From TrEMBL, chain A:
Membrane topology: Multi-pass membrane protein
MacB-like periplasmic core domain mapped to chain residues: 20-240
Organism this protein belongs to: Thioclava marina
Keywords: Cell membrane, Membrane, Transmembrane, Transmembrane helix
UniProt name for this protein: Multidrug ABC transporter substrate-binding protein
Signal sequence extent: none
Localization: Cell membrane
Automatic annotation (TrEMBL), chain B:
MF terms (GO), sorted A to Z: ATP binding
Organism: Thioclava marina
Positions of the ABC transporter domain: 6-233
The keyword Ion transport belongs to this UniProt entry's keyword annotation: no
Designated name of the protein: Macrolide ABC transporter ATP-binding protein
Length: 401, 234
């Protein structure tokens, strides 16, 4: 009898193809939307977390001007000099200090050229930024101090100028400087905002100051906090030192700012989780829409189905047999919709992850939740009207309007 | 002596309440013995269909006693009434009541499914029943592809397929032309005489009632006439 019931249910499904299709569609929409959105949301927050992780120990950035983005504040604040960097190096709460200046220039090698960012700094910068040398070497202390015509290039620049050949020992031209490539950086890939982190050339700070910018200024100073020291402690040390060096009277505002990059990254992370929340609520709405769709189809077909139940009862079916058929029908449609929905949702999420360059990380919980919800809706609205009808006297079910 | 097959005693059926109370059946007494062929006639609204539905266990009376083969039907639960319909009764509705988008043969198979017959056996029985009502070659037509008369014959075939003890037919020839009606009546008479099928049939037409062995007339929810008839020779 069970096999007979399954057969009855399958017959009913194929006989009412449009109704079955719409029911399945409702489940598919709900399940696919939820899975796609939540999977994308989780992938992007994983991406941000990975970025935060990769920053390692806390990186502090010191800039002139009261706030990073304050209007006007930066203009009248004096720039930092290399002497400030040396003073900061004496702070025990910091483990590495690197000045940075930068300039957008074109790097030329033979017939190839590449517009890129030239960063003037010291070898400490590599340590702070978590950069590793793939080939060659970093700046020597002498090169850091003297402003030698040497440079370290990122993978993107290397590819543009040298293809896949070894660039070390070659000379590239930047404006009037002919500088020797002494190192190649290990590629980092895309950053939090999708920017290309490997599109850079690093030169000694003095070289950039003198030959490219013609200025003694340092635009920002990056630092890492010594192990066992809190970033708050380090920031307070930096502030005390700088207020003293810049002769800021007690009661006056700082004319510089210190930002904790890790804090920034975790801020980004929280923005991202808001975004994930938003995506999830959109997904929840689609789930609801799918559910209402299923509900509608089921309720619209109640009249016809009630008459069907009346006919079955009148030829001798027992209520439980009729209900079993309807339950099997609902289960089959929900399963079908659920499986298609999961595949469609994962497919969408996979494509989106490729486009957005984020990890593809499907979660079993979400799949189960979306599937469960749609299945419950399908069954509730397929089963309960049927149960009500099966409890009627056959003549009432037959005359149901 | 075995009990009568159908025994209605003071059966009432009311709809609504208060001002709007309708007495569809107002104390019906009717006894049908095994092997009888009873025709029920009466004006429209006199309670014929209501009585048939109660006899067919599709509806329950508001009062009175209904005994089927000696069993008080009121003591049966829903599932037991379903078994009674399944094993003893075949119903032919005025409005056919076929499953839409379902072929003739599948409609006829329906009671056999619930009787637990296997597919192969069901197909043989259903085809046989369709042949009896003259529908060979129409097995795979759906109701919408059949005329009213053909649908009615599918409904009759469905009632016959389960080999019931009693066939209850509510205006089975209402939508058929005279030639078809006569064929159906002759078939029913044959089933009654040769297979001993008990038949209770509602009809508007004297000509059709003439095939029965007994005539019961309803008026205003009561039996006003109940007499044996000279059976029409076929
Ligand atoms: N479901 C119902 N609700 C209310 N009144 C009904 C219902 N079914 C039948 N009736 C009433 O019961 C009476 C008998 O109806 P019915 O048995 O169908 O008559 P017949 O078959 O003799 O034409 C009629 O007055 C009809 O209006
Ligand atoms: Mg009637």
């Amino acid at each position: 009898m069970l096999w007979e019931t399954v057969r009855l249910a399958l017959t009913a499904i194929t006989r009412n193809a449009l109704r079955s299709f719409l029911t399945v569609l409702g489940v598919v929409i709900g399940v696919a939307a939820v899975i796609a959105m939540v999977t994308v949301g989780q992938g992007s927050s994983e991406q941000v977390s990975a970025n935060v992780e990769s920053l390692g120990t806390s990186v502090l950035v010191l800039r002139p001007g009261a706030q990073m983005m304050g209007p006007g504040a930066r203009d009248n604040a004096p720039s930092f000099k290399l002497a400030d960097v040396e003073a900061l190096q004496d702070l025990t709460s910091l483990s590495a200090v690197a000045p940075t200046v930068s300039s957008s220039e074109t790097a030329v090698y033979g017939n190839s050229n590449r517009s890129t960012t030239i960063t003037g700094t010291t070898s400490a910068y590599l340590e702070i930024g978590g950069w590793e040398i793939a080939r060659g070497r970093s700046f020597s202390t002498a090169e850091d101090r003297s402003g030698a015509n040497v440079c370290i290039i990122g993978e993107t620049v290397r590819t543009a100028l040298f293809g896949s050949t070894d660039p070390t020992g070659e000379k590239i031209r930047i404006k009037s400087i002919s500088c020797e490539v002494i190192g190649l950086l290990v590629a980092k890939g895309a950053g939090s905002f999708g920017q290309d982190q490997d599109d850079l050339v690093i030169m000694p700070v003095r070289t950039v100051q003198r030959r490219l910018l013609g200025s003694q200024d340092v635009s920002s100073i990056s630092m890492t906090v010594a192990s066992g020291v809190s970033s708050e402690r380090a920031i307070s040390d930096i502030k005390t030192l700088m207020r003293d060096r810049r002769r800021i009277a007690i009661g006056e505002e700082d004319d510089f700012s210190v930002n904790d990059m890790k804090e920034l990254a975790s801020m980004l992370n929280s923005v991202n989780s808001v975004l994930t929340g938003l995506l999830s609520s959109v997904a929840a709405v689609s789930l609801l829409v799918g559910g209402i769709g299923i509900m509608n189809i089921m309720l619209v077909s109640v009249t016809e189905r009630t008459r069907e139940i009346g006919i079955r009862l009148s030829v001798g079916a027992q209520a439980s047999q009729v209900l079993m058929q309807f339950l099997v029908e609902a289960v089959v449609l929900s399963l079908l919709g659920g499986v298609i929905g999961i595949l469609a949702g994962l497919g969408l999420a996979y494509v989106a992850a490729q486009i957005m360059a984020i990890p593809f990380s499907p979660s079993l919980d979400v799949i189960a939740l979306a599937f469960g919800f749609s299945a419950v809706v399908g069954m509730v609205f397929g089963y309960f009207p049927a149960r009500a009808a099966a409890r009627l006297d056959p003549i009432e079910a037959l005359h149901y309007q | 002596m075995s009990p009568p097959l159908i025994e209605l005693e003071g059966i009432t059926r009311t709809y609504g309440s208060g001002e709007a109370l309708v007495r569809a059946l107002d104390g019906v007494d009717l006894t049908v013995e095994k092997g009888e062929f009873v025709a029920i006639m009466g004006p429209s609204g006199s309670g014929k269909s209501t009585a048939m539905n109660i006899i067919g266990c599709l509806d329950r009376p508001s009062g009175g006693h209904y005994r089927f083969n000696g069993v008080e039907v009121a003591t049966l639960d829903q599932d037991q009434r379903a078994l009674l319909r399944r094993n003893y009764l075949g119903f032919v509705f005025q409005g056919y009541n076929l499953l839409p988008r379902t072929t003739a043969i599948e409609n006829v198979e329906l009671p056999l499914i619930y009787k637990g017959q296997r597919k192969a056996e069901r197909l043989v029985r259903a085809r046989e029943a369709l042949q009896r009502v003259g529908l060979e070659g129409r097995e795979h037509h759906t109701p919408s592809q059949l005329s009213g008369g053909q649908q009615q014959r599918v409904a009759i075939a469905r009632a016959l397929a389960g080999e019931p003890m009693v066939m209850l037919a509510d205006e089975p020839t209402g939508n058929l032309d005279t030639k078809r009606s006569v064929e159906i009546m002759e078939l029913m008479q044959k089933l009654n005489r040769e297979a001993g099928l008990t038949i209770v049939m509602v009809t508007h037409e004297e000509d059709m009632a003439a095939y029965a062995s007994r005539l019961v007339v309803f008026t205003d929810g009561k039996v006003v006439r109940d007499e044996l008839m000279q059976e029409r020779a076929s």
